[in-house]
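Continuing from the previous page...

OK, I double-checked the sequence for Putative autolytic lysozyme against my notes and this is the correct one:
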Amino acid sequence: MLMAMRKLRLLTAVTATAAVAGSLLILPATAIPGLPANIPVNLPSGLLPDDMVQQASTVPGIASGVDVSRWQHPDGGGIAWDQVRTDGQSFALVKASEGTTWTNERLVDDTSQAAANGMQVGTYHYARPGGDARAQAQHYASQYNQVGNHSLPPVLDLEVSEGKSPEQLADWTREFMNELETLTGRTPMMYTYRYFWIEQMNNTQEFANYPLWLAAYQSTAPDPVGGWNKLDMWQRSDSGRVNGIAGNVDLNLFNGNEAQLNMFSAGQLQASGGKLEGLTVNDGVDLGADSTVIIGAILALAAGAIAAPALADAAQNANLDGLPDVVNGLIANDNLPVEQLETM
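Thanks. Re-ran it with the corrected sequence; updated structure tokens here:
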């Protein structure tokens, strides 16, 4: 117990002096026997390989959700929606249709199972503006009506122009949204991304009366576009991992807590807000089994028990070749309290 506490004090001192802007390292409970889990250590941005960055599937106090399509059914496998819900996901949006002919054969199965596990459920239509807007709205509505537990607003996924000018695309969008609202009796939600809306839709403000679901793969919630004064949903990643889903999946945050999400799903579209504004999500880094050797080597180097090559070997084995330079740089700049650490 005393040795564990000494290591914790040592690690805390290293952490305090190594706090540089960049990736946030979360040490697992197995990093050093006896240490508590989830000890944060800041490392420089870009030091760690992309495949070691682990995006948190949830954010405390904010309703989290996923959107899925056929890509989440590799080799025809299913989604374990009970595990998805247990992993903290509060809502699911399932691709229902595309163009005037494509439909999702897993639509009813996915939506019914997600709802049965206590999730708010929605669907979306992938727009093909080269085709007729009313026909696509009718096609989507026919799929929407198969989902008996559809709680979230129906969604137009608009991310390609297919040669239309901003004015033509706005006309197409208006026709689709009006037809869809007539057929479903629901106010639809718009899904898009910043560059597309600004460049291909000329940043029009015409559609700001609809809820907005904006894609932006970054750590800080984006500002709204096109006259909207808030986001209703933020799709923040296309490479998340959630229990129950094979492979990568899109991660989303609703602009509110679960109670607000329930009100939004019940048709109170003004219930969202107050959670995403100015939000920054700090995703962690999982060192897995390599952490014991690496952290042990850092502590030993800081205490003068080993030479730098030993740390270099441990870092190289974990594909962290730049780590020794960081630690040695802190020592060289007198930012690592070596004397204090040695007396602990």
